[in-house]
């Protein structure tokens, strides 16, 4: 332990020395040469400490990446993609219905994303002042087969 403390103190003093030498030789040709010499001395001191075994280095055990961890991360990612897609589609549909002059309380899309990346909109839940007109606008945007569910019913 004592060797480690001494090595750390030596490295700190040498780093201070490097900074002092660099500031004293600022703007001269000696700056790069003096800096190189000081850095070489620093490397020799650190190397000697390691070779003597004064400092024991151990790498932390980060564990192997398991496929379960990957699957869990992928599941979280997929859920977030679906949530963000649902929000974006709902925002666009809300803007379309409002631009038609219909008061909108809520429009929520139920989305599924397939393995090939295709987005399937299962159904759209609406709560507006004129649900029939809003449903017509939504079906015009998403397709006539889109299921539009009135949340008040």
Which terms would index this structure?
153 residues, alpha+beta, 3-stranded mixed β-sheet
Topology at a glance:
Layout: H1 2-24, H2 30-52, H3 67-99, E1 104-113, E2 119-128, H4 131-142, E3 147-150
Parallel strand pairs: 2-3
Antiparallel strand pairs: 1-2
Textual characterization of the structure:
It contains 4 helices and 3 strands. The protein has helices at 2-24, 30-52, 67-99, 131-142, and strands at residues 104-113, 119-128, 147-150. It has a 3-stranded mixed sheet with strand order 1-2-3. Helix 1 runs antiparallel to helix 2 (30-52). The longest helix is centred in the middle third of the chain and has 33 residues, at 67-99. The protein is elongated and about 80 Å long. It starts with a helix and ends with a strand.
Number of extended strands = 3
Overall 3D geometry? elongated
Structural class: alpha+beta
Total number of helices: 4
Largest sheet: 3 strands, mixed
Query: Strands across the major sheet, in which order?
Result: 1-2-3
**Share of β-strand residues:** 15-25%
Radius of gyration: 33 Å
Task: Calculate the mean pLDDT score and round it.
Answer: 80
- Unreliable segments (pLDDT under 50, ≥5 consecutive)? none
In sequence order, what are the helices and strands, one letter per element? HHHEEHE
Short description:
With 153 residues, the protein is of the alpha+beta class.
């Amino acid at each position: 332990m004592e060797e480690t403390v001494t090595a750390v103190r030596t490295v700190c003093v040498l780093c201070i020395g490097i900074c002092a030498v660099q500031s004293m030789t600022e703007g001269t040709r000696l700056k790069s040469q003096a800096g190189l010499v000081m850095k070489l001395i620093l490397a020799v001191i650190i190397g000697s400490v390691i070779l003597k075994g004064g400092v024991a280095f151990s790498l932390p055990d980060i564990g192997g990446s398991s496929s379960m961890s990957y699957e869990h991360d992928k599941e979280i990612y997929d859920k977030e993609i679906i949530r963000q897609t649902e929000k974006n589609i709902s925002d666009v549909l809300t803007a379309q219905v409002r631009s038609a002059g219909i008061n909108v309380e809520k429009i929520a899309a139920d989305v599924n994303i397939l393995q090939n990346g295709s987005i399937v909109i299962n159904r759209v839940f609406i709560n507006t002042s004129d649900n029939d007109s809003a449903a017509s606008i939504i079906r015009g945007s998403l397709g006539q087969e889109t299921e539009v569910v009135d949340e008040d019913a």
